[in-house]
Design goal:
Blueprint: E1 7-13, E2 16-22, H1 32-39, E3 50-54, E4 61-66, E5 72-73, H2 77-89, E6 99-103, E7 106-115, E8 120-129, E9 147-152, E10 158-165, E11 169-174, H3 180-191, E12 201-209, E13 212-219, E14 223-225, H4 229-241, E15 249-254, E16 257-263, E17 268-282, H5 285-293
Length: about 300
């Protein structure tokens, strides 16, 4: 229709970028092909995913998270922080005032702690409680803690895995050296391994200092990303669980930058990190028409 409008906000957390928009008054349905078009970096807006605001009966805001391949994610630490920046920019939350966001992976308590003069927004998110049970990540076999368990890959290759769920599934692999080519070769095999019923996010990590872990990230539905908030939480929890770090406040360093994760005694996780806004925009009538054709 001639007067239809789709406004959106784009932001990034350490290079991991998302588009945020309001699903409640969207004139078209975001089908998987439509999501892929919007996220395409050549023919769409370009992003690592879409954050869709919804209503919630149990929290201040509702959120659905879509991967660039059209699938839906349960939770995203970077996505949640970008969503907070989106809400701050629209005047719906204020600096220093806590609020809650309901996701398919659980309700998250959040606070925008500060906004700097150059537009960097610092956000604190209570990401839920880590579970190390195999059933929590959909791993085949009896319920157990899959810690340092060997997973068979192609051509007889095997990796020692540490599974962690924080409302979405993660598989942490501790390595002696971080090699991006090794991640690109083995992480897709782990991510889509038939032993994981829903697939899994994958992190290759190594402990470098008492409270520091370096990590590379392969996200389910997105592939290699410069950073990931939920992955940082999984890496920190797995490192503490395995005794690889002495501190319970862990700095997780990724190619895009660092995030801080507090791993509490009850295994609840608090994520702290920056977000930067990129722009606010509006899809053209032609783009909306193309999205409608993909419904």
């Amino acid at each position: 229709m001639e007067n239809e409008r789709i406004s959106f906000y784009k932001g990034h957390g350490l290079g991991n970028d998302y588009i945020a928009l309001d699903l409640r008054d969207l004139p078209v349905y975001l089908s998987p092909p439509a999501i892929r078009l919007v996220c395409d970096r050549h023919t769409g807006v370009g992003s690592d995913g879409i954050l869709g605001r919804t209503d919630s009966e149990s929290a201040d805001f509702g959120l659905r998270i879509f991967n660039p391949d059209g699938s839906e994610a349960e939770k995203s630490g970077n996505g949640l922080r970008i969503f907070a920046a989106y809400l701050l920019g629209s005047g719906e939350v204020a600096v220093g005032t806590p609020f809650t966001v309901e996701t398919p992976g659980g309700t998250v308590g959040m606070t925008v702690l500060e906004e700097s003069a150059d537009g960097v927004i610092l956000v604190r998110a209570e990401m839920g409680t880590a579970s190390f049970r195999s059933t929590a990540v959909g791993l085949r076999g009896p319920d157990r803690e899959a810690q340092d368990e060997l997973l068979e890959l192609e051509a007889g290759d095997r990796v020692a895995i540490h599974t962690v769920s924080i409302g979405n599934p993660h598989c942490v692999v501790f390595v002696d050296e971080l090699d991006p080519e090794d991640l690109r070769r083995r992480a897709p095999q782990i991510c889509a391994h038939p032993d994981f019923a829903r697939g899994t996010n994958v992190q290759f990590a190594r402990s470098t200092e008492p409270g520091v872990v370096d990590a590379l990230v392969w996200e389910r539905g997105a592939g290699e990303t410069s950073a990931s908030g939920s992955s940082a939480c999984a890496v920190a929890a797995a490192a503490v669980r395995a005794g690889m770090v002495a501190e319970r406040t862990v700095q997780v360093r990724m190619p895009g930058g660092s995030l801080q994760v507090e791993v509490r005694d009850d295994w609840s996780l608090v994520l702290l990190g920056p977000v930067e806004g990129v722009y606010r925009g509006e899809l053209t009538a032609g783009m909306i028409a193309r999205l409608r054709e993909l419904q």
